[in-house]
Amino acid sequence: MWILRLNMADRSYTLEEAPAAYKNLGGRGMTSTLVAEEVNPQCHPLGPNNKLVFAPGIVTGTAAPSSARVSVGAKSPLTGGIKESNAGTPWASELAGLHIKALVVEGQSEAGKRWLAHLTWDAQAARPKVDFLPADEYAGQSLYEVFPKLYERFGRKVCIAAHGVVGEYGYANAGVAYNDLSGRPSRYSGRGGLGSVMASKGLKFVVLDSQGAPGPEFADKGLFEQGALKLANGLRQHDITKPKGALNSYGTAVLINILNEAGGLPTRNFSSGRFEGAAKIAGESIFEGVKNRLGREVYNHACSPGCIIQCSNTWYKPDGSEHTSCVEYESDWALGADCGIDSLDDIAEMIRLCNGYGLDTIETGTTLAVAMAAGVIPFGDGKAAINLIHEMGKGTPLGRILGGGTEMTGKAYGVTHVPTVKGQSMPAYEPRAVKGIGITYATTTMGADHTAGYTIAPEILGVSGKVDPLSPEGKAALSRAFQATTAFIDSSGHCLFIAFAILDIPSAFEGMVEECNGLLGTSWTADDVAKIGAEILKKERAFNEAAGIGPKRDRVPEFMKIEPLPPHNQVFDVPDAALDSVFAEM
Amino acid sequence: MLVHAKLFATLARHLPGTRPGATIEVDLPEGATVADLLARLHVPLEEARMFFVNGRVRPAEWVLQAGDEVAVFPPIGGG
């Protein structure tokens, strides 16, 4: 496996065999190790000394189920700390297919020049090769216009990573976009502004074509296949992940109703835990709405090759033509409940615009909600919200304030009710109603991030046990365990949603570990998973401390400690000592 | 006593003609539990994973009071 470095200052590249110390790293473990070792924590995120690192997971590019994930890491312009944001996309498998363990983007091209890196397989030299092509002609356009042009030019089988026009502006909420299986620019490493880091390098696209490359190499293919089978069986058997199960039928937005019932669905800029319009935007309503508009039931599709879960949906217009894909829970909530908007058509339009402009849907929705709290537009006004996203896409002065993210918008308008940690906005679970996830938001290295330690599983979903979401008791240990296990899953290359199955089915958990052992030749056990994850977290933590983000930043905003949240009228009552114990006792 | 029940996601398939999440009024004897409510609605207990009574997570054996709002979910996930 290769470490490929692109030097954008002179458009040269180097290939080196991955050193022994990196042999067992993949995904988040790889990106965070490289960023921690090579990036000065004091650098400006959009300056010449930041590095953008793409890494496929350990088993990405193999037949392991639901494993086409790529991590991208750098110092984040949104949080000022280390960032890893992963996505499921065919691009991930293609990167692994080129036998690339890490793609490191360094330096900066001359101001205003944009380039496309075309990566192919050089069969004679048995290694990947890179051609740099000018990409200025694609600047300033929607990714929905650009992707078809690239397919026209390079063939439909290539895979594309890109940043949208908002990356060109340098917004702190610009994501990295990848193609889905149908060629849409709909798969995102959305969080933390990494699209702007990519743009700051002058790298507009990375186009991958692994044609002619040999398949993956296994240390013990039999063990790998045994593990993959155990995991696949677990995914097919578990009620959440099985075909026509909850995720395949209703998508991730199946969570809208349960969080609303629990009083933990953040509504109108985190001012209530219940939204009266929840039922209208829930996964069940998406399923019914599609059925009504198409005249047949539609189950969801895979975001990437080899996925068993298949949770990605498509929303259609009243005339039956496609509107957008996909309406994820987080996007649905951020642009819906958090803005007081209950129209799926308006939400779908906003998601389509975010995908086209290159915006993170979560940060965009929470930013609009803060702008609504400030009186810029009224809560619930979908058309006005759509217009504000256009302002962001056009780069107007107001759009640039909004593009700076939720915290920047709060400062611009003097709002005290700003739901962020370390500069990144909270996702779709209210810390005052679900205490464990609040601990994860506060303490993760990523800024407020639900995926970093998804305690929602036992607190709300009854997966891996059941605990009272309103109680703070024992939640620091719960968050710590989830954060460590997650860092491993994010390194394995698997979608985090395998957690629903592997936490309930021990043989599926074993299967994940055996896949890794079969590929790498390691002899990891289930007990090693959390230890390996904890080592990754410690590297990230050390980077953040050196960047000036220490334990005192592991806190939720003050308003959550003093304003009770309806309907349970609770504040965030987790003591600071419990927050500090998450990493102190890791 | 009357309680207000809501069945979500795949559980609504047990009540043909009822939309997921629609409120159903159910008359139960005093002392009835969440499990009794499901039996009355012909929803197999093993298909239900999470029960919320007035917004709080409760077990299947929780004793209901008149006017309670009960929301029942099958195993679901997302994120």
List the helices and strands and how they pair.
The complex is a heterodimer of chains A (586) and B (79).
Chain A: E1 2-7, E2 12-17, H1 27-38, E3 52-56, E4 69-75, E5 82-88, H2 90-97, E6 100-106, E7 115-122, E8 127-134, H3 143-154, E9 159-162, H4 165-169, E10 176-178, E11 187-189, H5 194-200, E12 203-209, H6 221-237, H7 246-250, H8 255-261, H9 278-281, H10 283-294, E13 315-316, E14 322-324, H11 329-335, H12 344-357, H13 361-373, H14 382-394, H15 397-403, H16 406-413, E15 420-421, E16 424-425, H17 435-443, H18 456-461, H19 475-492, H20 498-502, H21 506-520, H22 526-546, H23 559-562, H24 576-584
Parallel strand pairs in A: 1-6, 7-12
Antiparallel strand pairs in A: 1-2, 3-4, 3-6, 4-5, 7-8, 9-10, 9-12, 10-11, 13-14, 15-16
Chain B: E1 2-7, E2 23-27, H1 34-40, E3 50-53, E4 56-58, E5 69-73
Parallel strand pairs in B: 1-5
Antiparallel strand pairs in B: 1-2, 3-4, 3-5
In which order are the strands of the major sheet of chain B placed?
2-1-5-3-4
Secondary structure tally, helices of chain A: 24
The oligomeric state is heterodimer
Number of helices of chain B: 1
Number of strands of chain A: 16
Shape of chain A: globular
Distance between the termini of chain B: 37 Å
How are the strands of the largest sheet of chain A arranged? Answer: 2-1-6-3-4-5
User: How would the global form of chain B be characterised?
Assistant: globular
User: Average pLDDT value of chain A?
Assistant: 97
Order of helices and strands of chain B: EEHEEE
Question: Sheet with the most strands of chain B?
Answer: 5 strands, mixed
Structural class of chain A: alpha+beta
The top level CATH class name of chain B = Alpha Beta
Number of domains of chain B: 1
How big a fraction of the residues of chain B is strand? 25-35%
Biggest interface pair, counts: A-B, 45 and 22 residues
Q: So, CATH architecture of the largest domain in chain A? A: 4-Layer Sandwich
